[in-house]
Design a protein that fits this description.
alpha/beta; Metallo-beta-lactamase, Chain A; 7 helices
């Protein structure tokens, strides 16, 4: 792991979608990256707001940080990304794992999106497995962790890994695998690749769904996950995990924001082009998911 320079991590929690956004940087005035931003969206009205993103932008400005990358761990199904809005305010390149083309191909068909090319060209960069990218004195390394989707990436920075939707806090477990292209077997193997890191490796969650009234949390360790994760602690076999995950997923409802989120997020957060009346529209496929 790259531990030459210590990273500073600032977490932002969006309570409507239970999502954590991270700003990672060295110190005031340094380069920074943003991981998994949130554009607020009201499913009842179809209106967007930028409150969550504005909080991130204010922090970056207040600390005189220079934004170089706006990273996505995957094409989220539970919130819209604010990447283009943040880019417009602060610059930086929008990036995602290079397997996003698989997800684009699937949902281009689901939504019949003639205007979406399934080649990743909507993003400024597609990050490959094992690729290391510098920002200032820090760097992030891409870890391909499919399972929740076929295109999930985690990002290793120093002694920390931003795990996206692979692991949750130990008392919540792991991510669902029933979306198109998802695989419980792949998720198990991806998780095991993360849990091979040193015990004190810090793991930053993309979401928390706290049970029993506890406050939301966002950081765990490899040791804590191996000891206490309710789905995948030490001793759980791949066969046991797959059986549990498949049974659990069969009873889950679709995320509230999956239909708008996927359409926007496979476009790197860009909205569809406005139609002749000046209004942009999203599609609702009937009986498709």
């Amino acid at each position: 792991m790259n531990t030459t320079t210590q990273a500073t991590v600032k977490a932002f929690f969006d309570p409507q979608t239970w999502t954590y956004t991270y700003v990672v940087y060295e110190s005031k005035g340094s380069a920074c990256i943003v991981i998994d931003s949130v554009l607020n969206y009201d499913p009842k009205s179809g209106r967007t707001k930028t409150e969550s993103a504005d909080e991130v932008i204010s922090f970056i400005k207040d600390n005189r940080l220079q934004l170089e990358w706006i990273l996505e761990t995957h094409a989220h199904a539970d919130h819209l990304t604010a990447a283009p809005y943040i880019q417009d305010k602060l610059g930086g390149k929008i990036a995602i794992g290079d397997h996003i083309t698989t997800v684009q191909g699937v949902f281009k068909g689901v939504f019949n999106l003639d205007d979406v090319a399934a080649d990743g060209s909507q993003f400024d960069a597609l990050i490959k497995e094992g690729e290391s990218v510098r920002f200032g004195n820090l760097s992030f390394k891409a870890l391909y962790v499919p399972g929740h989707t076929p295109a999930c990436m985690a990002y290793e920075i120093g002694d920390s890994i931003f795990v996206g939707d692979t692991l949750f806090m130990p008392d919540v477990g792991t991510a669902r695998c029933d979306f198109p292209g998802g695989s419980a077997s792949n998720l198990y193997r991806s998780i095991q690749s993360i849990l091979k890191y040193p015990p004190n490796t810090k793991l930053y969650m993309c979401h928390d769904y706290p049970p029993n009234g506890r406050p939301p949390e966002y950081q765990s360790t490899v040791a804590e996950q191996k000891k206490s994760n309710i789905h995948v602690h030490d001793g759980v076999t791949e066969e046991q995990f797959v059986a549990m995950r498949n049974k659990r997923d069969a009873g889950l409802e679709m995320p509230v924001l999956i239909l708008p989120s996927i359409q926007v997020n496979i476009r790197a957060g860009h909205m569809p082009k406005p139609e002749g009346n000046g209004t942009a529209y999203l599609k609702i496929p009937l009986n498709a998911l």
